[in-house]
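Q: I have 163 residues here and want to know how they pack in 3D. Can you give me a structure?
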Amino acid sequence: MFPVEYCRWGRVSGSRATEQLGDWLLANEAASAERDVLDPDLRPFPGFQHTVVSLNWGGKRDHATWFSADPAAPAGIELIPMPAVAADYVAAGGKEQIGKVLDEAVPEGDYAVQFGDYLLMYRALASGSQATAALALARDLPAEDIDTGNTRSYLLAWIMSHQ
């Protein structure tokens, strides 16, 4: 279960302990996403030349995945499943950090890649013209480039809710 489901289940079932567990899990998920992955402090690693840390091996940071060498994969795998509550913490680094992550993940601006749908959702968090552009690109995204754990309707609704 994702932490937010614990929060909700605890609330609807009347279990304060489950709700508190969900709150704690979600707070830790948010803190680790910001601190370790999407907006990490990389000063102790001056040789690390990437924006996203997709693999954290204690004293080693890596920008890779075991399943794809595509530049979109390290950021994309960290964004999924992009529930509504994720917007509160995946954009913690702000517009500038979102821009840096996307410049590295989709350097040609082509979102017809694995996780392109999640990267468009992330782009929408930069708001303003970035959200408008994300919506236009999401409408035209080929169906085969929408992750099987996502749908076009959820993708569009998510982006629209962040404009």
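Q: Anything worth noting?
A: The mean pLDDT is 88. The longest helix spans residues 16-38.
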